[in-house]
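Re: [help] complex structure
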Amino acid sequence: MILRSRVRMFLAAVSSALTLLILAPAGRAQLNNFSKQELTDYTAKNPFERLPDGRPKVPDALIERARELSSEDVWVVLQDKGYNNQYADGFQILHPGKPMVGRAFTVQFMPLRSDVNDIAAEKAKARGVSRLTNQTAIDMLQPGDVLVVDLFGKKLNGTIVGDNLFFYINQATHGGGLVVDGSVRDLNGLSEIDMPAYFRAVDPTPIGNVMLTGINVPIRIGDVTVMPGDLVVGDREGVYFIPPQYVQAVLDKADEVHIHDEWTKKKFAEAKYKSSEIYGSPSDPNLKREYEEYLQKRLGEIRRERAAKEQK
Amino acid sequence: MILRSRVRMFLAAVSSALTLLILAPAGRAQLNNFSKQELTDYTAKNPFERLPDGRPKVPDALIERARELSSEDVWVVLQDKGYNNQYADGFQILHPGKPMVGRAFTVQFMPLRSDVNDIAAEKAKARGVSRLTNQTAIDMLQPGDVLVVDLFGKKLNGTIVGDNLFFYINQATHGGGLVVDGSVRDLNGLSEIDMPAYFRAVDPTPIGNVMLTGINVPIRIGDVTVMPGDLVVGDREGVYFIPPQYVQAVLDKADEVHIHDEWTKKKFAEAKYKSSEIYGSPSDPNLKREYEEYLQKRLGEIRRERAAKEQK
Amino acid sequence: MILRSRVRMFLAAVSSALTLLILAPAGRAQLNNFSKQELTDYTAKNPFERLPDGRPKVPDALIERARELSSEDVWVVLQDKGYNNQYADGFQILHPGKPMVGRAFTVQFMPLRSDVNDIAAEKAKARGVSRLTNQTAIDMLQPGDVLVVDLFGKKLNGTIVGDNLFFYINQATHGGGLVVDGSVRDLNGLSEIDMPAYFRAVDPTPIGNVMLTGINVPIRIGDVTVMPGDLVVGDREGVYFIPPQYVQAVLDKADEVHIHDEWTKKKFAEAKYKSSEIYGSPSDPNLKREYEEYLQKRLGEIRRERAAKEQK
Amino acid sequence: MILRSRVRMFLAAVSSALTLLILAPAGRAQLNNFSKQELTDYTAKNPFERLPDGRPKVPDALIERARELSSEDVWVVLQDKGYNNQYADGFQILHPGKPMVGRAFTVQFMPLRSDVNDIAAEKAKARGVSRLTNQTAIDMLQPGDVLVVDLFGKKLNGTIVGDNLFFYINQATHGGGLVVDGSVRDLNGLSEIDMPAYFRAVDPTPIGNVMLTGINVPIRIGDVTVMPGDLVVGDREGVYFIPPQYVQAVLDKADEVHIHDEWTKKKFAEAKYKSSEIYGSPSDPNLKREYEEYLQKRLGEIRRERAAKEQK
Amino acid sequence: MILRSRVRMFLAAVSSALTLLILAPAGRAQLNNFSKQELTDYTAKNPFERLPDGRPKVPDALIERARELSSEDVWVVLQDKGYNNQYADGFQILHPGKPMVGRAFTVQFMPLRSDVNDIAAEKAKARGVSRLTNQTAIDMLQPGDVLVVDLFGKKLNGTIVGDNLFFYINQATHGGGLVVDGSVRDLNGLSEIDMPAYFRAVDPTPIGNVMLTGINVPIRIGDVTVMPGDLVVGDREGVYFIPPQYVQAVLDKADEVHIHDEWTKKKFAEAKYKSSEIYGSPSDPNLKREYEEYLQKRLGEIRRERAAKEQK
Amino acid sequence: MILRSRVRMFLAAVSSALTLLILAPAGRAQLNNFSKQELTDYTAKNPFERLPDGRPKVPDALIERARELSSEDVWVVLQDKGYNNQYADGFQILHPGKPMVGRAFTVQFMPLRSDVNDIAAEKAKARGVSRLTNQTAIDMLQPGDVLVVDLFGKKLNGTIVGDNLFFYINQATHGGGLVVDGSVRDLNGLSEIDMPAYFRAVDPTPIGNVMLTGINVPIRIGDVTVMPGDLVVGDREGVYFIPPQYVQAVLDKADEVHIHDEWTKKKFAEAKYKSSEIYGSPSDPNLKREYEEYLQKRLGEIRRERAAKEQK
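Output below.
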């Protein structure tokens, strides 16, 4: 909620200037280089198409299905594959009840040092990129993206957006979402916009005293190495970053888990059983069979329903 | 929201195995022994009947009345009796507006060490107890119980329940509640179940790397020594554990406190007095008398109302 | 929710006695003296009238306008004036969606030491002030005040009020509000009263083991030096303390900022522009002109509307 | 280790200017007033002479004896007198093995706000005080003083001194010492100067963004209200602030405690007793008598020794 | 450094009384029962003799050898056996350069509640145990013991010993040591006694507001379940609790590790190799052979040396 | 102090395998690419020669002079140049009295995810690099280097070295030093090696569950962007990273600061002046002149001495 031109003037004067490196789309102007070819190489296991910028494109239909996922649904598959570092928590959550799902669009900032920054600015200018702001990254967002930003936990001047740019991101990503290991501002304004957001803190200051060092490069959020194009899934607990090659497996397993939950609670609601007679799996062979039949029936229903929906 | 059988297989393979000691109801199979006789001895001041497992049974009618209690109502009586260590806070609260009241059913876990655990398992098996899980304790819950668990603040693998077992506990205790110095999982699922819960953290991992060391033994939650059968009272602030012998006194005093609050606010609402003319107690003898009459009148009403209700 | 007379007896017995210094309105009985003349001197830049106690009186109409302010609206003006220490956060907020605005009524407590306290009590008595409680300060509150209390972050026995006195403050200040670098009690009761409150913690104990050392003296809340009569503005993030001489500038600038936000979002909603084409300020001269016209038109509307409202 | 004139220029330019209020010795120029008369009134229980500035003057001979005190020696007397808020810890200690003893010379800073600061500067100038720095306070230190500073835990720009001023304080106080709820700089330099110091943090920045608000006023350090002239005693654990009226009692009790420790360890060294046969006090009447005789003998020796020393 | 009888009187008066449960050596007077038979059962894998109290007795010769162990030496064996919960750190260390080795003598305290405590006291009295203090446990210490105490991280009144009892423990255990998840007092005095100690904090208050609930029962220190008789090994980092059955394996492996370190550094000192040519193991077959020969030679030397020493 | 081959086997088995990316010296095999050309470009302001790997080479003579620097000496110049993000603290310091100076050799790790790691390993293998360990980086260290490692604050399995590799680094860098935003192991062993080290924590586990993502790339340590070749200066407080272009200015300014300190203390030692008469700069024109003459004389002496030394 602030006139940026005015802000920038102040900041320039006081030396915590907001000076950001530009991403030269066709070249290598950012400090932390990661070319489209490298992105393709390092995400070679991606089973889907790719976005024009090279990121894996988890299909829209799977994104839709993923809105039902909880962190536990993802955990059960990823730990089984040996991926134990894909979960981050400890965030403030803007709309706790609202699921966040989308493709990771990653951005990295580092603490400002002007010798490095000046050279990056020259390199950018040489490629015809004249304005240097965090909006360079934001302007590249696509429908279905979740903006994922490493601002190294910075609170003061670590505010990736206020309500105006948050509004823009909501428009550009079609409600995708935001994860920032840093802060936001304008919490009053943000809370009126119906897009999910996960952040470490809130502060009234604008972003500053940092330099943009990478767009769609591998970044670290908490204990996770996030790759551009990862499927980001946020619930009331935290955020999972799912490598594209496991998205289908996670969703399929989730169907089973949800049916199992459904059946388990149905049985518990009958109040005839001790918990251990039903859960994790029924001890009585009859109950076991009952469950297996229920599982197959419900799986069939779910799949038919989904197919019907997709045909429309 | 996870198939436990599957989970357990994984865990067994990776060594953070979920291996739990069983409570041998008729014997001494748990590490931390506390027999029914000991329980009876150490809660000798209990003025009420006992549950079959030996715990004091605060009557249902008093539990119902206790739903009106706040932490402050309990504090005023317990500090007066010299009990300054019965309150724990710092929890995440699942449903902040919903009061939690019930009889403490205590469970203790300790960090896993397999030499101790193996022997406990043998001892359990010798008594015919074959399955070793946290569900052993959960299956023993009674209507009116609050499950109180010492998981020593553990977050990762310190998750006493997910939504399935939480659903079961709700059924079994008739909405009693959960206090865990540890974590829970499936927060999305939990938030849809209308039972109070107090926990330190949330994590997507299942319980593991711990051993069950006691059921209905004295345990420590924060700075409180909790005894089985204590009346557990949770509000928006934290949780009080009331020794059964003080439950009646707390409830009776609360009647007075509530009437005093009622009268105080009524007088304040008249906007004719400074706060100190009315509160803590009126300085003007006329007001003092007015209050005393109000107190007696309202106490009479409340008691008649309560008696009427109980007769139905 | 507690009978204070009873409490006081207990406390006296156990030595964490609630013994408070009195403010002698016409004299110098408090430890931390700050006379009406000093208050006037140190707030000499105040452009408004003063309250009888000497505090600057930001006009009611400006208080009303200030309900629209966010922390960011204040930041943009105060940092421009070189005031970087007027914001405090890290509070628990009672009603996050409800703005808090009012004139700072400041109170300071320090840790009890009875040698100092006894002398202060004698001094007070010599001036005819017989009762020594925190209510002395509370009884002086005026409509439009926000009670701002330095209890040095104390949780246990650092509870400035429970629900009875919170109710009184709401009456006395006409819903002004409370900021305490300390705690409150009776959270259940507080949450039913529709007045804003910012506090560090909640505890069931009453205030104690402290002494009142100043009323309407300069105090410190977090990294802010708060002066009596500052305009207190609280939103979902934290609390700003605005020196009276900048209130008008903040409000006028906020009008512009809000119009700018309005226009920016309107343009973003058209989905025709990249964020950097519109925000901070439009790059295209036509858009720039469009914005300038919009700004003037809306400013005019707002001012007319406001004038109309004030005439009624 | 920095040229302050240079520093000041920088700071002035960047707005975190080091601008400090002066103490007008004969008047009321500081924000937080506390006149010599008030100081005398509030320390009326002082049994000793006073320093010219009005502070109680604990005699040099008692300061010398107090070098043997530990925090425990002080605790035993002060808790007995009902003073439970006189101890602060959590400090970094410059020379852990070196005791700190001296008379509290208190200084208070608050976060800078220039409206208040400007008026204070004018008031000071009107009294002929032209330079406004923290050195104003430091220049007033006397032999036997310990400088006690409230910098509200500030690390960045909360550095009360570097090695030059620390050297000066050592000269001026004859090795008295420093307690700061804030930071110091030049730790390399400080560690070469043989004066005790207790601080919260170390930072390379100079003091700034604060204003001096009081000299020899009551201040708060942690949970202690420190009065000017309190006897400051620091050991390996933390710092005690002893009201002058209890200094003699503390020292006399300490003689007994030290003899008791001496005797207890002597008996333990004989390896003939269980700890409970000797400590806290001997159970066997013969041992009890032995101890009583030892105590009287040693007390006599100590007193004669002390008297002899004082005669020299 | 305090007369306990005096202290106890005060404490009794103020209600944070030091009231401790007694261990009835021949019976079941403590809250947390764990009989000699149970201790024997749960430490059945112990390959050594036992102490009269039932604890495994790791031989003196192995304790002597264990003084060379570092945490890393223990880690390599215990993780290999699947024991990942035997290490605790985060302690303040009294003498960082001095190794601590001994047999765990465990003690457990819980927060005081007088209903439970009174009954325990009666039970103790019925068995002829009249004095109820922490010294009951301390008086049972044997040469070679390390006192390991669960005081649940308590600082205030969580001080297991001061310098007198620390002196006694040093005598009784022949310099064994102390680990307390709680605090100590008299740090000045402690630092003059040459026994290792690991504690969470230091405070001038004596122990109080707790009850002794177990001696030589399984206890939790951080994330470790400590069994009586575990070999306690402390170095500059933290403390390992080694189950007796792995002591020999740890020590034998440590011989190899130490020789490997010796050889590695010798080769590095020659400055002819890159680190990866030598460490973890040499890539060059000749170097590999050289190492193997060195290992065998040194192992032989060490064993002969050790045998010679033991024959003396 | 551990056989790494053994360790690696264990780790592979349990899935927290130590699998590291290799730096392909001639190519682009690391995730975070930063070619020699880029390094040269981004450090274009370097006034010195370069090392073969492209890093600026601050001359040995200046490194030698820099051993006298304190953090404050660096601060005064860098803040003046507008560099406020070059200082990191909060480390455990191995040898607090020993200065650390050298050229930054930077290494970056990120949390392991095996899809990315596998591809990096293939890329490395394609370039003939077969062994993948942290030793790849360590083996590239040169005399005068300080190893600076981003391990994102990781404690468990975040141990960059134990005593064997620490010994190697000491050899290879000629005592340069280590800064790690992570942990070390073998603290007993490390403390016997006379090389400076700054780390966040100590843990007995070896490095694992991470992947090496860059060597001599820009990295972040706390709030500092560290460039390869920065001059690293560590004292008792923390660590400064000085861009090469400011090294000469820092050293020259430090001469003046040290002379100023010398003179200031000399004057203070005379005990004739108040601190403000001498420090920051003398008020009396005669003293000012005296200081100026002293400064010139001492600067001359220092320069002659230095020249003489260099001629030898």
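The interface with chain C takes residues 15-16, 28, 31-34, 38, 41-45, 82-86, 110-116, 119-120, 123, 152, 209, 211, 213, 217-218, 220, 223-225, 227, 243, 245 of chain D (CB under 8 Å).
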